[in-house]
Amino acid sequence: MPPLEEPCKFQAFMNPTFRLRFPSTMMVFLWALFLISFMASFLTFVHPAPRSTSWHKNVRSSAHIRRPNGISVLVTGAAGFIGSHVSLALKNRGDGVVGVDNFDNYYGRSLKQTRRDLLGLNGVYIVDGDINDRRLLSVLFNTVEFTHVMHLAAQVGVQYAVENPYAYVRGNIASLVTLLEQCKSADPQPAVVWASSGSVYGAQNKVPFSETDRVDPPTTLYASTKKTGEEITHTYNRLHGLSITGLRFFTVYGPWGRPDMAYFSFIKNILQGKPITVYRAKNQVDLARDFIYIDDIVKGCVASLDTSGKSTGSGGLKNGSAPYRIFNLGNGSPVTVPALVTILEENLKMKVTKDVVDMCGDGDDSFAYVNISLAERELGYKPTTDLQTGLGEFVKWYLWYYGNPLVQNRSV
Fold first, then answer.
1. Which of 114, 128, 146, 214 is the most exposed place for a label (fewest CB within 10 A)?
2. Rounded to an integer, what distance in angstroms lies between the CA atom of residue 335 and that of residue 355?
């Protein structure tokens, strides 16, 4: 599910009249934005300078497999929260890993750059580039014979879509098509695992969310781009024989996390003695989310790579059916936002003033509860970190990384 953000800005999405028109109208809107974004990328494409010898050497060294039956993985969004953790886990077990990240400034570059430096110390090379850059992808695939692609690069967040919808179409749809085009043409084709989102379930009343549920209609542009991504990947699987696994992430948290997430702002305000805003549904029900610790998500991602099966195409032509899978990766145990705040207070040994505010809209997306039985059965996925433990680890990292804002005036 998306981060806990101000919901009032999206009241139009919750209007019943709008909902009736939403699926067809939104899909037309998305595809129009996609075509505009794709053409803009094509027309304004800047040819990169020839890659240096040292660049090729770094890429090949990072992709070197150090264990029997290991895999070679291209990780997109490798300097991001989940991408950095997955890259490190793969490298530590002896797989070849090459990262790519465009280091955008959605939440500032410094945290991503620090993650990159950490990965570099562990032998993971991250290419500073955009996966919409077709020539860059071609050079990477000509340099390394990747067995797998872990596609985690995306434009995240909900509110930002109001300001810049094109970023979501370019970052979540156009880039996905560019990457899949490269994968379909590769010989041999890699297996693809990519990040969808629990947001695709939208505001349905049925819980827990299951992979077989209908996901109409999405309630945000971000969710719409992820739903569109699922349709696109299914098409590439059917037409070109790409093995594809989509992972519907829920609320992932932990050390090195995204600063735009609610728990980041909560801990910052608690340390600075400022009040925090806690939203609840109009029926006085506390919001609940399926919080999943980063280490558990990493296990699910790695298991998805290990069980992905092989792509069956060659040079873009399908030679047989290939696996196509969708998995929920959550905790399966929703926790209310006030409970999360209480755990943060306990870890910090500080109290905070809570301003409780009713959500705008009808609040029918206030309770996120996910069924993870399919991932348990097919991936051996079993979360083991409870929220108390996970937030404790996050607090320790936060205090180490940022220092106490009361002493050091460092911004997140």
1. 214
2. 19
206 is written with which tokens? Answer: 């049925």
Asked whether the predicted pLDDT for residue 407 surpasses 80, the reply is no
* CA-to-CA dists, residue 186 to 127, 175, 234, 299, angstroms: 20, 17, 18, 27
Cα 239 to the center of its chain, rounded Å:
25
Output phi, psi for 5, to 5 deg. -120, 170
Tens of pLDDT, residue by residue over 225-240, are: 999 999 999 999 999 9
Task: Rank 9-13, 65-69, 215-219, 367-371 by mean pLDDT and report only the highest.
Answer: 65-69
Does residue 155 contact residue 106 with C-beta atoms inside 8 Å? Answer: yes
Q: DSSP class of residue 317?
A: B
Question: pLDDT tens-digit profile of 273-282?
Answer: 999 998 887 7
Distance, in Å, from the CA atom of 30 to the CA atom of 26, rounded to the nearest integer, reads: 6
Domain boundaries, the chain: 8-402
Q: How many CB atoms lie within 10 A of CB 351?
A: 11
Phi, then psi, of 258 in degrees rounded to 5: -80, 125
The one-letter amino acid at 55: W
The CATH homologous superfamily to which domain 8-402 belongs is NAD(P)-binding Rossmann-like Domain (3.40.50.720)
Distance CA 402, CA 266 (A): 14
Question: Please, how many CA atoms are within 13 Å of residue 371, restricted to the half-sphere of its CB?
Answer: 13
| Interval 26-39: pLDDT, tens | 555 555 555 555 55
168 annotated active-site: no
Q: Which residues pair with 261 in a beta bridge?
A: none
SS3 content of the chain, % helix, strand, coil (to 5): 45, 15, 40
* DSSP single-letter state for residue 411: -
C-beta of residue 374 within 8 angstroms of C-beta of residue 332: no
- Return mean pLDDT, the chain: 86
User: Considering only CA atoms, which of 88, 92, 86 is closest in space to residue 66?
Assistant: 92
Q: Tokens 């085009």 identify what position?
A: 181
Q: How many residues does the chain have?
A: 412
Q: Pairing between strand 191-195 and 244-249?
A: parallel
User: Based on C-alpha coordinates, what's the Rg of the chain?
Assistant: 21
* Cα distance from N-terminal residue to C-terminal residue, the chain: 22
